Amino acid sequence: MVTTKQAAVDPNRVLGMIMGGGQGSRLFPLTRERAKPAVPLAGKYRLVDIPISNCINSGVRRVYLLTQFLSASLHRHVYGSFKFDHFSRGFVEILAAEQSATDTSWYQGTADAVRKNLAHLRSADFDYALILSGDQLYRMDYRTILQQHVDTDAELTISTTPVTREAAQSLGIMQINADRRIVRFVEKPKEPSLLDQLSLDRATYGPLGIEGNQELFLASMGIYVFNRALLPKLLDNDYTDFGKHIIPAAIDTQRVFSYVFQGYWEDIGTIRSFFEANLDLASELPRFNFFDMAAPIYTRPRFLPASKINGASLDHTIVSDGCILNHCKISQSIVGQRFLVDAGSHITRTVIMGADYYESLESIRRSAETGAPRIGIGKNTRIDTAIVDKNARIGDNCVITPHGKPESVDHALYYVRDGIVIIPKNAVIPNGTFI
Question: Both 93 and 193 in a single domain?
Fold first, then answer.
């Protein structure tokens, strides 16, 4: 049975660890030159801003970010975004993969990444380790999962979210008893008979606060709370991944409980999920609300002018700071910072990541002399169902659309993934190009 509610958990006794070392192959080519948590989001943010902001809003002010692949831009962003004063115990620090005299391997998985940093963790003063993913879009007050962890006398608590049968087949599914203790875990169950066994008992819907009568399954969100003493104990082996190895083994030997989260949650693991999550932000009632100032999402402060709209027509579009939009039409799209869209262009269902800098007059002059486009989108260009990565130069009279193309294409100028055209970072698309 669930024990009597304990005293409130002190967030200062919690150490946050964000997993940011994965290669992000399913998000290629957005991860061709950057780590997955550094992928731009919603015009002005990065994916890593989400878990760090959730930590700050929850009072968890000591956070480690574990990194490995293509992490230079991620490091610049984090150190430029999250600074605490000298009189605070708070920090957001990078723990990059490193070789040592006794271990020359890199991170082999999420559990291995934490194992290789146990020396850093042992020197820290904390009671609970909060382990998070660096590539998810959600808003959570971690104090709620921490409080349940203490109230249930759990050794390990896993945050789960109800999902449909279709979604369950690509996620790790938990089965719980009446006390929310996890009794079974299956990774990506496909067999209908197995899924039937794992479905959430409808008798628990009321106590869990789930409305309706739809068939649901509890999927792991990749958010874990460990007691300090348990973490090195579970890592005293060769297991490399929490979801695949550590969690299934712990269920049989430890007190492992489920915290059921029912807010919006999206795993930004594929090009399609990234694309749809961004476009949803431009809808009238987005499922994730960046305008909620009770729990704001923080990012790097920038000193940019307000965007300038010169006769442009905008519909369900987010326009970030420092843009210039000249007599164009943009709908159901995101326009990132410092970006130019010139006259006569029509942009639909497109995620534009913006630019890292403004071109100088000399750079613009040289581009004009050579016939190369300047950074931005030129005149009379049409783009539909696309992702335009940073600093792209797209010329005049271009057409960019996935229609009539295979689901996956690798081309010198562009890529197609999940039926979406991707213009990579720093790409140059000449005038009159038809994609």
Answer: yes
387 shares a domain with 349:
yes
pTM above 0.85, yes or no: yes
Q: 340, 390, 381, 285: which is closest to 39 by C-alpha?
A: 390
Exposed/middle/buried for residue 229 (C-beta within 10 Å: 0-12, 13-18, 19+)? exposed
Which residues constitute the domain of residue 76?
11-281
Contact 240, 151 (CB under 8 A): no
Contacts of 126 (CB under 8 A, 6+ apart): 13, 14, 15, 62, 228
Structure tokens at 333: 């799209």
Residue 434 DSSP symbol: B
Return the amino acid letter for 234: L
Domain count, the chain: 2
Cβ distance 423 to 406 under 8 Å? no
CATH at 105: 3.90.550.10
* Radius of gyration from C-alpha coordinates of the chain: 23
> Please, are residues 29 and 70 in contact by the beta-carbon 8 Å criterion?
no
Say which amino acid occupies 30.
L
Question: pLDDT tens across 88-138, in order?
Answer: 889 999 888 765 555 657 778 889 999 988 988 888 899 999 999 999 999
Q: Evaluate whether residue 287 is within a structural domain.
A: no
